[in-house]
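hey team, just a heads up i'm posting the complex here instead of the shared drive bc the drive is being weird again. everything in one block, sequence lines first with there labels, then the predicted structure for the whole assembly after. its two chains so it's a bit long, scroll down
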Amino acid sequence: MQTPAPFEYERATSVEGAIASLERLGAEARIIAGGHSLLPMMKLRLASPEHLIDINDLTELSYIREEEGMIKIGALTRHVELLKSEALARRYPIFRDAEQVIADPVVRNRGTIGGSLCQADAAEDLSAVCSATKAHVVIRGSGGERVVSMEDFHVGPYMTAVGADEMLTEVRLPLFPGAGNAHEKVERRAGDWAIAAASAAVWVEDGKLSQVGIALSAVGMTTIHLARAEELLRGQAPSEELFAQAGAVAAEDCSPSADGRGPVDYKRHLAGVLTHRALRRATERAGS
Amino acid sequence: MNITITLNGQPVTHDVEPRQLLVHYIREEAGLTGTHWGCDTSNCGACVVLMDGQPVKSCTILAAMCEGHEIRTVESLEVDGALDPVQQGFYEKHALQCGFCTPGMLMTARALLDENPHPSEEEIRTAISGAICRCTGYKNIVSAVRWAADHQEA
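-- predicted structure starts here --
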């Protein structure tokens, strides 16, 4: 039987209260939301927090809304809500692409976007989605809020910019004209982690790619942000040839390891193909 | 810590350790052994129960997190000797062999039909994609859910 090591449990009744608890309890306290990353880690003793602060009652952190020229998603928004949101699918269909293949519907009833991002598992899909879409996250501490880009958010494997006494409260997605985006994933079976996955976001202006974001899941120690492939595409007119070149760069710039999901050369090849496909579909959507 | 959960419609209070998982709470504290404890890794779906009407994997939720919430287990499906249509569907379509996955399958199917009374075959297959049947009886399970959808008034 797998059971977590003993810990103290408390329920937060406000964001401020959760942050105050984090400050008071120190580095051995953790926030728990859906728990579908943290509890498995605790069962395996990969994590042994002494205090859990349950934020599931903080419904004020569960929302998807459009304001101030961006889409704002509350950290406690669950996967099922991201999947079903028509407003999000209209602006960022990449989320629906990803959510259809994140775990299974029952798990998606619990897991949250904030938890997924803070887990910072390289194989997790939303980290790549948020990197590609140039998202920012809002991190709150007792001293106030700060807004951090995904590049600065990802510090290392399973490590983020969120401090021990801070919490992620919101994800912000930019709204610029000419946007198109898509997520492509290959998994061994329904609900599994990716063998490889690629997220692409493009913004097309006057027939050229004014801005491009590409990120890969499951082919490195962290989410791979493909800066070199983005640079190759920026300012160019989209074409199949160009996307194939970007795919070749993606295959070079990832660093997969061999495991039960496949050998290195296969994963590199897959990363390239999925990057190409994601760019193609993102650009088709930008035109529609 | 003391927690009160509405379990199959009845408020129940138990003194639990914060680390106790919902599946063990249901089986050991509440004594309802219909919910099966399977893979322990939120993969197999044998432990699915409804939390406020939504299917969840009870091996990956703390009992403490359910304080103040409604939990519904497989024991609640049969009422006064009458089977729920999903149970009757499993009977009619021979949708189980060993029966280990059945409680989770039934609760997952119940939740699907509550939300979507007329699901397509694809929607049924997607709904149960987080539930594993090692007797590989998926075809009959899908038929059983279809039967239940067609006999909701039963």
